[in-house]
Amino acid sequence: MSHWTLGKTKISDKGLLEEVAMDMGLQISRRGRMKGEYAGTIDCEFVISGGQGGELAVVKGDDGNYFIQMDNYYNSICDIVGQDAALLTREYQTELHKREAQMMGGVIASQEVDSQGYVFLEVNI
Questions:
Q1: Which residue range is the domain that position 113 belongs to?
Q2: Of the chain's two ends, which shows fewer C-beta atoms within 10 Å, N or C?
Q3: DSSP letter for each residue of the chain
């Protein structure tokens, strides 16, 4: 069944999200609306697409943060970003934490992803 899914990750740095998306081979489109195949149309800040027709929307919330809204039903972008954009948001959060560590003078010594998808960063300060 097709419907819009709301991402659980609050995105405070939309520029970083754009960088991460482009690093994953995705494209950014600055249009203000996205039409789902079966779920209707929504207003958004920008659209991230996978190049094969699959898309997700980045929407600004009432609190000033951004979140991802997408339709997982037959959406080819899920092959790249995962269901509910879990892989994209994981990469975003990882890069956000790396930047925070570096701003405090830390150096990223290593990064590992375990079998459940959890990211472990080793930071030397």
A1: 4-124
A2: N
A3: ---EEE-SS-BS-HHHHHHHHHHTT-EEE--SEEE-SSS-EEE-SEEEE-SSS-EEEEEE-TTS-EEEEEE-TT-TTHHHH-GGGHHHHHHHHHHHHHHHHHHTT-EEEEEEE-TTS-EEEEEE-
